[in-house]
Design goal:
The complex is a heterodimer. Chain A has a two-stranded antiparallel ribbon. Chain A contains 14 helices and two strands, in the order H-H-H-H-H-E-E-H-H-H-H-H-H-H-H-H. Chain A has helices at 2-13, 20-28, 40-47, 54-64, 66-84, 150-186, 188-203, 206-219, 225-255, 258-265, 270-306, 318-322, 328-333, 335-363, and strands spanning 102-113, 116-127. The N and C termini of chain A lie close together (11 Å). In chain A, a hairpin with a 2-residue loop joins strand 1 and strand 2. In chain A, helix 6 runs parallel beside helix 14 and helix 9 crosses helix 11. In chain A, 66% of the residues lie in helices and 7% in strands. By secondary structure, chain A is mostly helical. Chain B has a single domain (39-369), classed as Rossmann fold. Helices cover 33% and strands 22% of the residues of chain B. In chain B, a hairpin with a 5-residue loop joins strand 1 and strand 2 (77-92). In chain B, helix 8 (183-193) crosses helix 9 (210-223) and helix 9 (210-223) packs parallel to helix 10 (240-257). The N and C termini of chain B lie far apart (49 Å). The chains are: A mainly alpha, B alpha/beta. The interface between A and B is large, with 28 and 43 residues.
Chain lengths: 369, 376
């Protein structure tokens, strides 16, 4: 399977002549192979063949890996269902179901004052909320402890969780690339300063700081949507250091390559060198890092929301739906409340990891199973 | 091709006058304070005459490139690796200077230092009629298109994520050599001239063999219409049949575009084939320099003699007296006293161990640094 995969391109170029083993080697190290010129006729033949850019080769390898395809499809389904699903329902994440049935109760109180007997009727009419209902036709996943539809909350929660993941990862990658790029390219004291900052970020215990941050947010009565933005910023603030270190290391080694010296002797401006020659060469690593990072951001967000520090109620995220676990009876008897968001988190993180692994393998043709 | 002749006519391009603000000069002075003054200024600064500037595209006087190998506590260097030590040379317009020497003698560093790719420690460089000694990075960028370099390794010197067309046209676009919409045609014509099929324009470097990659490198260097190209061992990574193709291509392009080359190689026969004059380097300094035929017929320096005696002769009956040097090249971080070659010289005298010989001209254009010849 693997061999076939890698041969396809070469077979296209030189039909019938490429030996499997050679072809694998050639693709394994496209930059080091020092083979002599191909015979003239195959060369002419290859001129008619569509040329694949490195990105297309990577895409090919990626789409052949089963596990990463499973991950990709799962993610697509999750995103589609979360963003499109709620459109088909008249409920949303904060609609409370008041159809829990009604009951009236009358209490008769009789007492005697001065030989006379009075009777008092205390009638209570109760319209109850349909809470902790088991799955039914109305509520496919039942309702939670406040009578809100669990399915709707999971879908809306997915919107927030998945969006936060992307926003945070994109922002922290941008910040990381800028900081790491500057450090790696300019070196010397610039590098020293930025990398020491990164070191400091590495030794700050993240969770306690996050707790303090959300306490500050709560104290300043930052609520609702604003709190979600702040949460994103805080996560970005603590996440860029890893990316910066990665990018800096790569750029340090790329900078010493001869092609960068060639760019310099060409008098190419600095921005062009950084953004057209250095960053594209770091991009594969970045994409892998981002995909794997998405999973961990979703986990962090869930943890914070579970602890009640993240996205505030009534907004739903997968993390704060699971908060229902704190109630012992819910844990014991109502799997339908905390099970679905948990499974969603697991599916999303697992899929992101599958896709990330698949991308890493696809970018690195030397890695063979 | 008409454009190219136009280009050579305006040979003395006006270079923007250099501006140095006081802060930079002071900072430089402060930095140089760490370097022993004697090693920086042990010669009389003699600017070349107008005539010399008109004749030579490149004049290098007492060029030094020291790499710090040891620094003291506050970061000032205390010991150097003298990769290039006091090298002077000149290259006339349209001519080729070959540089030969053992591995590690500083040939590549010399080339890169005079192009400004490495900052120089001391010395003056005059290029195309202008003093570029104190040019900063920004000023260098304005003249970079006139001085190009072809690297030794065609594998690592091409940006892996660019297409061949992208690689060659980058310099053209940056320096606005031709209008934007003509770039593609221009590059394709150049590719054809360099022996690359134009349909390779959209290909990536990894699809090519070493010889083709070297052609891409040559096309890239020539795309900006330079006047001077440093060829840093352009053929040593290639097999012999392709070496000849590349060398002939370089020669053809030289006559076509009036290029001046500095041809760095350790292959004497290659250098003899392409050069008008030859410089021989040993341990960072030039030991002999002169016209190619003079060097090959009448070498003066014992090191040149031994190098030439090592060239294989395709005649089994002819016996050559090989001068086989003992030992290997000493470390440039700790060079021998006196004449640097004295540890391996077959004609070593007492004075060689103590006093460095003067590099002076003996015949027209033929210079040498050796105690065997009169020092005055």
């Amino acid at each position: 399977m693997d061999k076939e995969n890698n041969n396809e391109r070469d077979e296209l170029l030189t039909p019938g002549t490429a030996e499997p083993v050679e072809a694998v080697n050639e693709e394994a190290k496209p930059q080091e192979t020092a083979e002599t010129d191909q015979p003239q006729e195959t060369e002419n033949l290859s001129d008619r063949v569509k040329v694949l850019s490195p990105a297309q080769l990577v895409a090919r390898r990626f789409f052949r890996s089963k596990l990463s395809m499973i991950g990709l499809v799962t993610l697509l389904v999750l995103y589609l269902v979360c963003f499109i699903g709620p459109l088909f329902s008249d409920m949303d994440y904060k609609t409370i179901d008041y159809n829990g049935g009604s009951s009236s109760q009358s209490t008769e109180i009789t007492y005697t004052v001065d030989g006379e007997t009075y009777t008092m009727y205390d009638i209570t009419y109760t319209e109850s909320i349909n809470l902790k209902a088991y799955p039914s036709a109305d509520h496919w996943l039942g309702t939670d402890e406040n009578g809100r539809d669990v399915l709707m909350r999971v879908l809306y929660g997915g919107q927030i969780s998945l969006t936060i993941g992307i926003v945070v990862v994109v922002l922290e990658t941008l910040l990381g690339v800028i900081m790491g790029g500057i450090a790696g390219y300019f070196g010397k004291w610039v590098d020293q300063i930025i990398m020491r900052i990164v070191d400091i970020f590495y030794c700050i215990p993240q969770m306690p700081i996050l707790l303090i941050c959300s306490a500050i947010l709560a104290a300043n009565e930052v609520n609702g949507i604003a709190r979600i933005y702040w949460l994103c910023l805080v996560l970005v603030f603590f996440g860029w250091a890893g990316t910066a270190r990665l990018v800096r290391g790569q750029i340090l080694s790329l900078r010493e390559q001869e092609f960068m010296l060639a760019e310099r002797s060409m008098g190419v401006p600095v921005w062009r060198k950084i953004f057209l020659h250095l960053i594209p060469n770091v991009l594969p690593l970045l994409i892998v890092q981002m995909t794997l990072g998405l999973g961990s951001v979703i986990l962090t967000e869930s943890t914070l929301s579970y602890l009640g520090l993240g996205v505030p109620i009534p907004y739903a995220t997968w993390g704060n739906i699971i908060q229902a676990l704190r109630d012992f009876t819910t844990l014991q008897y109502h799997f339908h409340i905390w099970g679905p968001p948990g499974i969603c988190i697991m599916l999303a993180v697992l899929s992101f990891n599958f896709v990330g692994d698949g991308l890493r393998d696809a970018f690195d043709p030397k890695m063979k199973k | 091709m008409e454009e190219k002749t136009e280009n050579t006519q305006e040979s003395t391009s006006p270079v923007p006058p250099k501006k140095q603000n006081a802060f930079v000069t002071n900072a430089k002075k402060l930095f140089q304070a760490g370097i022993p003054r004697a090693s920086l200024q042990d010669y009389d600064k003699t600017p070349p005459t107008e005539e010399e500037l008109k004749e030579n595209i490149l004049i290098v006087n007492h060029l030094k490139k020291y790499f710090p190998v040891e620094t003291n506590l506050i970061g000032q260097p205390i010991r150097y690796l003298k990769a290039v030590d006091d090298v002077s040379l000149r290259i006339p317009y349209g001519k080729t200077l070959g540089i030969v020497g053992e591995s590690g003698c500083g040939k590549t560093t010399l080339g890169r230092t005079l192009l400004g790719l490495y900052g120089k420690t001391a010395g003056e460089v005059y290029f195309d009629g202008a003093d570029i000694t104190d040019f900063g990075e920004r000023q260098m960028n304005t003249i970079r298109k006139d001085m190009q370099v072809i690297f030794q390794d065609p594998y690592s010197s091409l940006s892996p994520r660019f297409t061949v067309g992208g690689i060659i046209s980058e310099g053209v676009a940056v320096h606005k050599i031709v209008p934007r919409d003509e770039i593609k045609d221009y590059v394709m014509a150049l590719m054809e001239r360099c022996g690359l099929q134009p349909q390779y324009y959209e290909r990536y470097p990894y699809e090519f063999s070493g010889g083709q990659r070297q052609r891409i490198c040559i096309a890239r260097a020539l795309a900006v219409k330079p006047k001077f190209v440093v060829c840093d061992e352009p053929v040593s990574a290639l097999d012999v049949s392709i070496q000849a193709q590349i060398l002939n291509l370089l020669r053809e392009l030289q006559t076509e575009m009036q290029l001046a080359y500095m041809f760095i190689s350790h292959d004497l026969s290659v250098v003899q084939h392409v050069s008008d004059s030859v410089g021989v380097m040993y341990l960072g300094s030039m030991v002999e320099c002169g016209p190619t035929d003079r060097i090959f017929e009448n070498p003066m320096h014992p090191y040149t003699k031994s190098l030439l005696s090592a060239v294989p002769v395709p005649d089994p009956r002819r016996k050559k007296d090989r001068i086989i040097l003992q030992g290997s090249i000493p470390s440039p971080a700790n060079p021998p006293s006196g004449c640097r070659f004295h540890t391996r010289c077959p004609a070593c005298m007492d004075i060689c161990k103590e006093q460095a010989p003067v590099y002076r001209e003996y015949e027209a254009g033929h210079s040498c640094a050796c105690h065997l010849y009169p020092q005055e």
